[in-house]
UniProtKB/TrEMBL annotation:
One of its GO terms (biological process) is heme oxidation. This is Biliverdin-producing heme oxygenase. InterPro entries: Haem_Oase-like, Haem_Oase-like_multi-hlx. It comes from Mucilaginibacter pallidiroseus. It holds the Pfam family Heme_oxygenase. It comes from the Bacteria.
Amino acid sequence: MLSEKLKEATKTNHQILEKALVGKLKAVRSAAQYADLLKLFYGYFGGLEMNINKVIDPNLLPDNAERRKTQAIADDLQALGAGIPAKADGDALPAINNHLEALGALYVIEGSTLGGKIISKMMQQQLNIGPDALSFFASYGDDTERMWNIFKDALDHQAKNPEQEAVVIAAANQTFLKFGEWFNKNQ
Ligand code: HEM
């Protein structure tokens, strides 16, 4: 299954990113620091989402419109009274030129809903902020696992051969790597 291969092939990059993020998250003590973190996600996921939307085939992911979007980060930033930063573009983002590459990037975005639930709990414990500032990391709430399973199921029906699978996997790894670069450059 492609979803299993993706998990295995991106494991190291996930661990590196998670490690970098956990340290930063644990150090968050104010709404302003939390807003800075949200801005990092907004810039990267925002640019990524624009490029995905240019090439994704909506028929192959019918519930795409219901899925978590960068707009949720903008809503959280607004609830915190923080500004909305510019979106990443050009070389700051992975190359997303076709539907398969878009799926690889979406795998990273959708997978981040799983870690998002942990992040949301951490922020609730560390800060005095309401749910209106936590909509992005709250992901799909109790529906998060169900939405993840639906996404994986869609993913598993799309790559037709090992060559196509390799395209999705390479795009997912690039998406993790470029996020790490973005994170290091902008923090
Ligand atoms: C503090 C930060 C993070 C923590 C603690 C965390 C934690 C987790 C956990 C617990 C899972 C579920 C593993 C499983 O059920 O097998 C997961 C999966 C995943 N996370 Fe993270 N994560 C973090 C950040 C991120 C970020 C920032 C991204 C993407 C930009 C990301 C992408 C993914 C992906 C793609 C998966 C799915 C792996 C699979 O295929 O099952 N994570 N993460």
